[in-house]
Amino acid sequence: MASNTSSRVQFTSSDTRSDEMHRTIEQWAEELVKDVAKAKTSEEFQTWLDVQSRFHDYSYRNTLLIARQCPEATKVAGYRTWQEEFDRQVQDGEQAIWIWAPIIARQCPGCGNSPNYHENTDCEYDETPPEEWSEGPVAFKPVPVFDISQTEGRPLPELDTEARGNATDLFPAVTGAADTLGVKVAVVDPAEWDHGPAEGICQPVDDEDEYDTAIEIRARESTAAMAAVLIHEYAHALLHNGVTDNPEREKREVEAEAVAYVVGRHFGLDMSGSALYLASWQSDKPETVLDRLDRISRTATEVLEAVKEYQRR
Hints:
The protein has helices at 17-41, 43-52, 60-69, 79-86, 115-118, 170-176, 178-181, 223-239, 246-266, 273-281, 287-291, 293-312, and strands spanning 76-77, 88-90, 97-106, 135-147, 151-153, 183-188, 200-204, 213-218. The chain is an alpha+beta fold. The protein is elongated.
């Protein structure tokens, strides 16, 4: 994917500044829509998507079990699955992570039990014989799985969504914008990071605190990547206030990354990886970004102004 790095934009005329900022934001949002469309058809994304499709989505019960046994887990699969589908081997001495797996058998359409259990119930269903019953989960049993960190072998494809560029001076200004935006920010050492594979989190704080929202980001070597993650989390703080509907929150993930794209572009960062990030996140058409342009535009402008205010001090 071609880089969309641009030189830093200057809005020097106070008479036209507002209109120019909005036109520029609209232009970058339109370019992001095109990049997302390209990302969805790229070989890199399709290869990644194929691998991801072979990992199961687990129930909340299994997710909790995995988190309690191996909090740092990111991708889990059975012993044979790692060998046969991913060409990876569980390392010697690794402890299994135990989850619940369904036992599949023919089910009585009336009571849902397998033929053997059905015989010992009061169910009187007899419209079709057991050999014609459809199969489904009749019970659960403990099964072992292993996280990718417990295996070795062929690497899995990864999407390179990291922002690039020189943000040595920019990152302190982005961090300093927190006060203006009404949030508190902490950059956490990787050894102390306890939020799994996430690069940043945004969450409400107690009413007694002077801030409504707290953001944590994992320290990285790349200041450009940290700046982009922090801008993304700022967008969450501004866009998600009071939003509790999960489907709407998922849609606003698209908006948050679009805001990071726009603000990062303004400061000359290469944000082309955002397209792959959004292509992996949203199932809607890329035009979703444009449908929500007003909220993206207003939020990007608010973050931009907060960073600029800090830089003027």
